[in-house]
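quick one before i forget lol
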Amino acid sequence: MRHVLVVADETVGNDALLEAVKARLAEEPCEFWLLVPATSPHDVAQTAAAWASPATLPGFAAAELAHQRLHRASDWLSRSGATVHGEVGSGHPLRAIADVLEHQPIDEIIIAAPPRHVSHWVHHDLARRVRHRSNLPVTEVAAKLDRPH
């Protein structure tokens, strides 16, 4: 059985990601480990300004949003026939991926990156860095930002 790590934040629930998962399933039996880094939402700074203790809100908001995305995406991928497990990871995607690789057997990594004009992941060349550090096949799928399913 092939073990595939799927890394997505705002891109969960995206057609490009679903197609990548379905393609793996068509090739061979797979299990998917879904990693949702607790990256800060784009509007956290504005939201935090409205609170008395803004230092604590960004981390909480990012983790809460990541948990919501994880549950929604796990259900969505499961309905497509995939066996999915997952976790919320560090807000630093490279660190979050390294943490998963320490405790999960992974054969391949799929990174669902937002569009280039939005993504700090693409700007920091996350896929290349992960490929270099993990020595695993890494596929980057260009995805639109998430939408409700």
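fyi The CA atoms of residues 96 and 102 lie 10 Å apart.
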